[in-house]
Design goal:
By secondary structure, the chain is α+β, with helices and mostly antiparallel strands. The chain contains 3 helices and 5 strands, in the order ααβββββα.
Length: about 140
């Protein structure tokens, strides 16, 4: 039996979560969601880990976690992405992920977030295409 949820069901669950929050967090999550879809109309919505909205395109782009005092956008490969405007403000010490913590009243730079979303999608597309062209069992040449 599969535990996967259809994109339509995931979108409905995200809608319900936004409605359930009914405060600044719901509005922030709805705004971020719209920005993500504007940046990449081919993005797929998923629902994972017992209630976390996830946006994917050839792999996870980012998650939208909601906590009491913050809405957190965690980028799966954020450490590998350019962030010239400094959107990442959380999870900065890790080797893989980076996050953006949004607090009440936070003014999000929409064009910068769209650029970051597109960079994450490009990373996923490039990473997947490179892994498909190299067999995982290929041996490195031996030095003599």
């Amino acid at each position: 039996m599969s535990n996967s949820i259809s994109p339509e069901s995931a979108s409905a669950l995200i809608d319900a979560k936004i409605d359930q929050l009914a405060d600044w967090r719901g509005q922030t999550l709805a705004n971020v969601r719209a920005i993500i879809h504007q940046a990449d109309p081919k993005i797929v919505e998923e629902w994972k880990w017992r209630g976390t909205p996830v946006w994917s395109h050839n792999g996870i782009v980012c998650t939208g976690e909601t906590y009491k005092k913050v809405v957190k956008l965690t980028f799966a490969h954020g450490a590998a992405l350019p962030d010239p405007t400094g959107l990442f403000n959380s999870s900065l010490d890790g080797n893989l992920r980076r996050a953006i913590d949004l607090h009440p009243g936070h003014q999000l730079d929409q064009p910068a977030l769209q650029t970051l979303i597109r960079a994450a999608v490009a990373f996923n597309l490039n990473h997947r295409s490179n892994s498909k062209t190299r067999p995982s069992h290929a041996k490195l040449p031996q030095s003599t």
